[in-house]
Design goal:
The protein is an alpha+beta fold and 148 residues long. The chain has helices spanning 16-33, 61-75, 82-85, 90-97, 128-142, and strands at 38-43, 48-53, 108-113, 116-124. The longest helix has 18 residues, at 16-33. The termini are far apart. Pfam families: HbpS-like (PF03928).
């Protein structure tokens, strides 16, 4: 018997309240660090679920934060892991890094709750390490897996 996929497939996504808590936690961490950031949360389909911009954060970092969240949600691994994932394959390295909205440097983390990929968080505006620290604060407030 040939089994096909059902016509409708359920997909877990982050709720709007959780997305709002995640962005607020990232901003709180940024305040502790003395930096100004933009933070975005996308659901597992890559749709923007929440966004916060701290006054004075780089305007150019708005789209970068959104794209980091989009990349982490879509692929399910940290944006900072991209170059290692394509290491040794120059074609993939050049090809993927040229894709619109794909970010290949740190600050974007997947959001996994109860072993399900439900979205991604992206932070931009500080150093790569500080962006990741703020993104990890977003995961922590959700009780999300941080095995990145």
């Amino acid at each position: 018997m040939n089994r096909s996929e059902p016509d409708v497939v359920a997909q877990a996504v982050i709720g709007c309240d959780a997305a709002a808590r995640a962005t607020a936690a990232a901003v709180s961490k940024a305040r502790e660090l003395g930096v100004r950031i933009n933070v975005a949360v996308c659901d597992s389909a890559g749709n923007l679920a929440a966004f916060l911009r701290m006054p004075g954060a780089f305007v150019q970092s708005i789209d970068i934060a959104i794209d980091k969240a989009y990349t982490a949600a879509g692929f399910g691994f940290p944006t900072g892991a991209w170059m290692q994932a394509v290491e040794g394959n120059e074609g993939m390295k050049l090809g993927f890094s040229a894709r619109p909205r794909l970010v290949v440097f740190g600050g974007g983390l997947p959001i996994r709750i109860d072993d399900q990929l439900v979205g991604g968080v992206g932070v931009s505006g500080a150093s790569e390490a500080q962006d990741e620290e703020c993104a990890r604060a977003a995961l922590a407030v959700l009780g999300a897996a941080d095995d990145n």
